[in-house]
């Protein structure tokens, strides 16, 4: 095995199988078709990609850059600055300005500056950048990538061609098209992986469900489960990421609705301790489960309101034991409301 092959074998699948060209990208067909035409006609504009994490924003522009430049030219023609880099006004006036203002001797055409996580840039840096973009458009193209478009100043937005890269941001189990995209990507990784991935249908669905629209997370879950277990099944996926199983949620809802307070509290606390579950994860799954239960409207509204308050308090750093008691109490009150209505 060569040194390069050995280096690649240790890479996470997210990086190892990152698309090398536009044809490798799955989904975002309209955006890819448009950019591909820009590249072929050598008329690439300034770009602004925005959308949730893990939907392919950085992969898209890197695929464009790798399609335009050879591996030897890439480092000299592409400047990539990420959120880990200092990108205040000093960097814009220094490193970005210096890179954009210089031409390469041995290659004609434009350079590309990629500003990843640009929504974390200060307003001063963004204001300084707009003049740099205008002044060096002939020599350099800028690609601004962000999660929240509202954090990019309007002056920068107007100078770029905006694209919303959010096709995969919806829960895949509720969208057949997105589910197909995930299956295509995961099966592609399964085919390329040096060791065959034994994955079941419910395992595939569990990976897609837990990813919640983030393809990067889906691949990380798939790789971790594959390395930890011989088979990527639903139970193994949920166990690997420390997420409550469906039958655990069914048991929890059964306890809080049918058992006494003390029994329900002890059972849930023992389950949390044995499986290392977080109350926030349990609460999220119980919330989805409540929507599927046939309850009177006012009872369901009571439960949803109480669970929203509990989630807010958990996010504020309060005690899980106290909030678990509050969750059980909310269901006990709901049970009493159902009994009163029946009588």
Automatic annotation (TrEMBL):
SUPFAM superfamilies documented for this protein: P-loop containing nucleoside triphosphate hydrolases (SSF52540), post-AAA+ oligomerization domain-like (SSF48019)
InterPro entries (alphabetical): AAA+_ATPase, ATPase_AAA_core, DNA_pol3_clamp-load_cplx_C, DNA_Rep/Repair_Clamp_Loader, P-loop_NTPase, Rep_factorC_C
CC terms in the record's Gene Ontology section: DNA replication factor C complex; nucleus
Main location: nucleus
Molecular function terms from GO: ATP binding; ATP hydrolysis activity; DNA binding; DNA clamp loader activity
Localization (cell): Nucleus
Domain (AAA+ ATPase) ranges: 43-172
GO biological process: DNA repair; DNA-templated DNA replication
Superkingdom per UniProt: Eukaryota
Keywords (A to Z) from UniProt: ATP-binding, DNA replication, Nucleotide-binding, Nucleus
Family to which the UniProt record says this protein belongs: Belongs to the activator 1 small subunits family.
This protein's name: Replication factor C subunit 5
Species of provenance: Mizuhopecten yessoensis
